[in-house]
Specification:
single chain, alpha+beta, five-stranded antiparallel beta sheet, 5 strands, globular, disordered N terminus
Length: 106
Amino acid sequence: RDFCLSRGLGDVYKRQDDDISVPEEADSGAYLFQVGAFKNANDAEIRKVELVLLDLPTQVEESTVDNGEILYRVLVGPYSNTSKTALARAKLAENDFPFLLVKLKQ
């Protein structure tokens, strides 16, 4: 599968080692996890099904990047509650899914 991480949703918090901190400050922002960006829509749908089986709210978003290439982003969330964000992060980490934590633009 072609897997690459892309930008454009908001502020990205990269995963380091096997841990990522959920921002503790109480703000009105919402967060989501990007759990893949695929060149092939079928690969994105497979990832979506894997995440739905973990009871995570998942969607696939088609996005055109700077070079005109189309990527299919697999997104979990959004979460505005810090504890729900932390629970989703834990499920992703426990199941070895690579991810980026993204703060959505307001």
